[in-house]
Amino acid sequence: MTDGTPTRAQRFAAIVVPAAERAGYTGHGAKARFARDVGMAESGVTRLWQGTALPDARFYAAISEAIGVDLGTLLVEGGVLSPESLQSLSETDRTRVDSTLTPEEAADRLGIRDEVGRQLLYATIERLKRLEDEASDHSADRGGTAAQM
Q1: What angle do CA 89, 94, 100 make, to 5 degrees?
Q2: CA gap 130, 149 in Å, rounded
Q3: pLDDT for residue 32 is more than 90
C-alpha cells in the first residue's frame, strides 16, 4: 500500500516470522525445514516470510502448530475469518449448546458454508479433542504416581 499501512500479508508475516524464529526456524535451511513441517512449497514460505503473499488457508493449522501461535489469530490476520466470528459464546449462550452437536451441525449453525472454513473448523475441533485427551492422560499418569508415593 502506498500510504504506509502494512498489507495483510505484511501483518501476517510480522506475526509468523518472529514466532517461527522462536520455534527454532533459524539459520541455513530454516525455510526448507518450515516448508517441510507445514507442507508448503519453499517458494511459498519465502513469499510468506517476505510479506508478499499469504499462504493457502489449508496450511494455517499446520503453521499454528509449528510456531505455537493461536490458530484463531492466524485465521483473522490472514483474512480467513473475521474477528467477530471468533468471539466466545456468552455464558447464556453456553447453556444452550447441545453436547451432542456434531462438528457438521456446529458449522451449519455458525453459518460456515465455505468448504475450507468448514475443514478448518473440523480440524480445530479434532485437535482440541486430542489435546484434551492428552491432558487427561497426563493428569491420570500424575495421579497414579502420586497415589503410589
Answers
A1: 115
A2: 29
A3: yes
